[in-house]
Write a structure and sequence with these properties.
6-stranded parallel β-sheet, alpha/beta, TIM Barrel, binds methionine, EC 2.1.1.14, binds zinc ion, zinc, globular, repeat, disordered N terminus, amino-acid biosynthesis, binds the ligand Nc1nc2c(c(=O)[nH]1)N[C@@H](CNc1ccc(C(=O)N[C@@H](CCC(=O)N[C@@H](CCC(=O)N[C@@H](CCC(=O)O)C(=O)O)C(=O)O)C(=O)O)cc1)CN2
């Protein structure tokens, strides 16, 4: 909820007031006489995942760089043509990326970490350098680790974390931004370059040397941005979108001052350039006065996440300035059809204060986070499909909204009918589900005994060695495995044939794990397309799409299920595969489930009830599955919650409430079993330091967690907090094809053993192995088991 900032924030800077006045003197060269519609970014994977396929083919040497570039260019041209056709006035360019827009920005400003210099000296091509930074490079005697990757705000998109060192310098290196502007211009598109702004670029990165603040690099960075803007202006750019999503975070006054100074300098250098400043995913909150005072022409507001800020903004001095507003009324984070009545209220309110010519309308954020085209979904129930909109349809919604503002009321009536149909549909509600969630008592979220009691029982029962080894669940999802599923779908395989092939793969992976000496085995998850989609397909209240792909990182995509109604579990979901696997080994076989918060977070969620209610409905369904696994003789059950940190609200003031229901949902799912049953959870891809006590409150017997890319930095937080339960800090990065040596894993384990009691330590990779190939997986895991053995020997000396 938006609250007005305290007056002290308004007046903390004299410079700020000066710039407000400055801007009022300035008359925008951008003559708008109608309401603009624009877009912040379009999905770049291609509506048939063309980019994913081309990148992966390039990485395996099946196509050339020229062929990859040609695919990329086609995607850009198609996206621009589509947006043009939908009447979008400012069409984004430079929103295309081969991997990630933050990495692109690092290359733009020449922020290439030292360890890639040898590649630059060898004059490898820019795109290859980009891929090396993203994925690591192990070839021709070079062995260079990848850059770190982390969650993009509260999304399932991951960006490459810029690395900064004291004394770092920048220069205009990658020309992608100007090249792509010129490419669009050549095709006669009114392109608006989209660039991650300099302050957020610094804030999103990490200091790699001690004793300095990365924001202090702004003086060196800004000249490069000015150079970029100068090149763009020379090339004919009239509007430039600078994304500063860090304005959605809690910022201190020093950071806000950097915003003020930076944008003042940009304005001073380019007084005629129309800068559109975009932040999204949250309210501007306490940063609002600064945001409103920055000398930019247009300020973008995410009115989906923060509808209330519109009143505050319109009520303040804004009516007296020349500032334009971009109203983000169409949800860029979800797939529900826009409620035109609601959007029009917001648009008309703004128009009545500022006039049409000072209003643009847009999606709330880049459309990167939604699938491309609902028209490709031919198997959806027509009723539910009529409630939905993907990226292409969202462009149409912008056009419709403008047409309605201009008098086309028929469009409004059609929309009202769809919104009404969804609100009143019997498909959504199931009384028994609501009743069960409502009957919750505290005991439902508590294991029978405390952790120390459970730990003794479990250690006696299992007799595992010190530093027990395990993996996170999935083994390589080879093309062969995916082909099986594709052929099953096409009817080329019967269910029996499909299952026989999956059984064979499962038995093979069990034998192999036994051979190399892993302690707690997994079945490999070969039967799953994705850890969330697989459950979505089996739960009621969910629907799944055929082609609703969204980029997660690099070439990796997900097809989030859609939660449209009350959730229940009509039948066992994983018991068949887990008991099959346990029957084929005398070792412990881990059952493998996805937790309620992650299923919620990685789905498109209904927006007609609180997320916490939906999370609880999923929690009860997972709990039933956990109990069913226990009854089937599975003694170790992992409930993955990799997305628990991702769901954390961006603003601190909203976090406690979220953590309370999220932790409780996990505990509901985990608390139906006996003390003897060991519950694992797994988390990856985030900074966990700030929620460590809540992770402890989840009370899983074992947590396996990603730590290797950050060299076990995370463990200091666990140690500092005296994390009570067992923990497996990931000893190698599974997101890179690079093969880790036993020695490097031993050194990480030694670090871990200094900070945490050896009795509580497990040995495992950072995450599941589904994205890896077999050869590297075999080497890596054999080395990992050897590392554990060395640790055991050292401990016994
Ligand atoms: N939902 C989710 N979010 C997550 C993760 C995750 O595992 N799941 N992991 C973290 C990192 N993100 C990741 C995201 C995706 C993948 C991933 O491996 N995705 C696969 C797709 C997985 C999938 O659903 N596969 C389906 C569909 C496979 C497919 O592409 N089939 C072909 C057909 C095959 C053929 O005919 O050749 C097609 O549809 O074109 C299946 O196995 O059945 C990919 O992009 O390659 C990994 C990590 C964080 N977020
Ligand atoms: C993104 S977390 C992945 C957990 C899952 N069990 C796997 O191994 O793939
Ligand atoms: Zn993981």
């Amino acid at each position: 909820m938006y609250t007005m900032p305290s007056p002290s924030v308004y007046i903390f800077s004299k410079t700020l007031l000066y710039y407000i006045k400055e801007r009022e003197r300035h008359v925008s060269p951008f003559k708008q006489s109608v309401m603009i519609i624009h877009n912040l970014g379009y999905p770049r994977i291609g509506s048939q995942r063309e980019l994913k396929k081309a990148c992966e083919s390039y990485w395996t040497g099946k196509i050339t760089l020229d062929e990859l570039q040609a695919t990329a260019r086609n995607i850009r041209l198609q996206n621009w043509a589509l947006q043009q056709q939908k009447g979008i006035d400012w069409i984004p360019c430079n929103d295309f990326s081969f991997y990630d827009q933050v990495l692109d920005t690092a290359l733009m400003v020449g922020a290439v970490p030292q360890r890639y210099r040898t590649l630059q000296e060898k004059k490898i091509r820019e795109t290859d350098l980009l891929f090396a930074m993203a994925r690591g490079y192990q070839r021709d005697g070079d062995d260079i680790t990848a850059m770190e990757m982390t969650k993009w705000f509260d999304t399932n998109y991951h960006y490459i974390v810029p690395e900064f060192t004291a004394g770092q310098t920048f220069h205009f290196f990658s020309r992608k931004v100007t090249d792509q502007f010129l490419e669009a211009k050549k095709e006669n598109y009114a392109a608006k370059p989209v660039i991650l702004g300099p302050v957020s670029f610094l804030l999103l990165g990490k200091e790699k040397t001690a004793g300095f603040n990365r924001l202090s690099l702004i003086d060196k960075l800004l000249p490069v941005y000015l150079e970029v803007l100068s090149q763009l202006t020379k090339a004919g750019a009239e509007v430039v979108q600078l994304d500063e999503p860090c304005l959605s975070l809690d910022l201190d006054e020093a950071a806000l001052q950097v915003f003020i100074d930076t944008y003042a300098q940009i304005h001073a250098a380019f007084p005629q350039l129309h800068i559109l400043l975009a932040s999204y995913f949250e309210c501007y909150g306490k940063n609002l006065p600064v945001a409103l005072a920055l000398p930019v022409q247009t300020l973008h507001l995410d009115l989906v996440r923060c509808p209330l800020q519109l009143d505050d903004i319109l009520e303040t001095a804004i009516a007296n300035t020349s500032l334009h507003l971009s109203l983000g009324v169409v949800d860029g984070r979800n797939i529900w059809k826009n409620d035109y009545t609601r959007s029009l209220q917001q648009i008309q309110k703004a128009v009545s204060v500022l006039g049409k010519d000072r209003i643009a309308i847009a999606p709330s954020c880049s459309l990167l986070h939604v699938p491309c085209d609902l028209d490709n979904e031919t198997a959806l129930s027509p009723e539910i499909k009529n409630w939905m909109a993907f990226a292409k349809q969202k462009l149409q919604e912008l056009k419709d909204l403008r047409d309605i503002v201009n008098g086309n009321t028929a469009l409004l009536d059609t929309n009202k009918a769809a919104i009404h149909n969804r609100a009143t549909s019997p498909l959504i509600h199931r009384k028994e589900v609501k009743d069960r969630v409502a009957a919750f008592t505290a005991a439902d979220a508590r294991r029978n005994s405390t952790f120390p009691v459970r730990q003794n029982i479990q250690q006696q029962q299992f007799g595992l060695p010190l530093f027990p080894t395990t993996t996170i669940g999935s083994f390589p999802q080879t093309d062969d495995i995916r082909q099986l599923r594709a052929r099953l779908k096409k009817g080329e395989l019967t269910t029996e044939q499909y299952e026989a092939a999956i059984e064979k793969a499962t038995i093979e992976v069990i034998r192999w794990q036994e051979e190399i000496g892993l302690d707690v085995l997994v079945h490999g998850e070969f039967e799953r397309n994705d850890m969330v989609e697989y459950f979505g397909e089996q739960l009621q209240g969910f629907l799944f799409t055929k082609n609703g792909w969204v980029q997660s990182y690099g070439s990796r995509c997900v097809k989030p299920p859609v939660i449209f109604g009350d959730v229940s579990r009509p039948a066992n979901m994983t018991v068949r595969w887990s008991s099959f696997a346990q029957a084929h080994t005398d070792k412990l076989m881990k059952g493998m489930l996805t937790g309620p918060v992650t299923i919620l977070q990685w789905s498109f969620v209904r927006d007609d009830q609180p997320r916490s209610t939906t999370a609880n409905q999923i929690a009860w369904a997972i709990r039933d599955e956990v109990v069913a696994l226990e009854q089937a003789g599975i003694k170790v059950i992992q409930i993955d919650e990799p997305a628990i940190r991702e769901g954390l609200p961006l603003r601190k003031e909203n976090r406690a409430a979220y953590l309370e229901w999220a932790v409780q949902a996990f505990r509901i799912s985990a608390s139906g079993v006996k003390d003897e049953t060991q519950i694992h959870t797994h988390m990856c891809y985030s900074e966990f330091n700030d929620i460590i006590e809540h992770i402890a409150a989840m009370d899983a017997d074992v947590i396996t967690i990603e730590t290797s890319r950050s060299q076990m930095e995370l463990l200091d937080a666990f140690a500092g907090f005296k994390y009570p339960n067992e923990i497996g800090p990931g000893v190698y990065d599974i997101h890179s094809p690079r093969q880790p040596s036993a020695e490097e894993m031993i050194s990480l384990l030694e670090k871990a053993a200094v900070t945490l009691p050896a009795r509580n330590l497990w040995v495992n990779p950072d995450c599941g192995l589904k994205t890896r190939k077999w050869p590297e997986t075999k080497v890596a895991l054999s080395n990992m088991v050897r590392a554990a053995e060395v640790m055991r020997e050292k401990a016994s000396l």
